[in-house]
Amino acid sequence: MKKLREFSFPLIAPSLLGAKHELLLDETRRVFEHGFNFLHFDVMDGRFVPNLALNSLDFTLLKKHFAAFYDVHLMVEDPLKWVKEYMHLGASHITIHLEASNRDEIFSLGDLLHENGLTFGLSLKPNTPLEALDPYLSIVDLILLMSVEPGKGGQSFLPSSYERLRLLKEKVASKKIVIEIDGGINDKTGPEVSRLGADILVSGSYLFKSQDLEEAARLLLNE
Ligand code: DX5
Ligand code: ZN
């Protein structure tokens, strides 16, 4: 499987939380067979966010069936043990939340992932100032901008995210950092965020509810 920077952007990452859980394998097969091979996998601990999402058994099952890029989004406190777990299970990339960690840990998690051949991302909740990223711009491969409060699928895109995305693009302009956006991405918000320079558009409920995936992808990216 390709590494993060070998993909062509913008691309759509199906958020597997948007699949019906009891049909996870079938619904993932449908998107995978339509060429979506960059899979966004949400993990929640019931503490950093109130809910739970997908788990390591789901991950192992998917890995067995699909040779995809596994983009793991950890919405957890104490990310270290989760990072180790998903690294050993074969994640391609892991993103943690900036709000759930601290400076020393962020640097050491970045090193740990890089030493093991994975890429490292930091995610920000909608109210976290972009300046909080400043100390880490030289070590992150990806920044995941949340355009809803993390914790569940199917929420509406927060319009303030457009301006945050524009400012974030300015901030990382000269760096090779991939920008991903997650939450409420559909045929209205998708074209706007790709115009503003988002590299990866995560889409859960919109994509999984679409009957025609090719058409949905065209509408998401306005191609
Ligand atoms: C929410 C998750 C998202 C979610 C997106 O906290 O991080 O990945 O599945 O779902 P939609 O696209 O429905 O907003
Ligand atoms: Zn996510």
Report on this model:
- There is one protein chain.
- The chain has 8 helices and 8 strands.
- It is α/β, with parallel strands linked by helices and 223 residues long.
- An 8-stranded parallel sheet has the order 1-8-7-6-5-4-3-2.
- Helix 6 (189-195) links the parallel strand 7 and strand 8.
- Helix 1 (24-33) crosses helix 2.
- The chain starts with 10 loop residues before the first strand and ends with a helix.
- The relative contact order is 0.17.
How is this fold's topology laid out?
Blueprint: E1 11-14, H1 24-33, E2 38-44, H2 56-65, E3 69-75, H3 79-89, E4 93-97, H4 103-115, E5 119-124, E6 142-146, H5 160-171, E7 178-182, H6 189-195, E8 200-203, H7 205-209, H8 213-221
Parallel strand pairs: 1-8, 2-3, 3-4, 4-5, 5-6, 6-7, 7-8
The protein binds D-xylitol-5-phosphate and zinc ion.
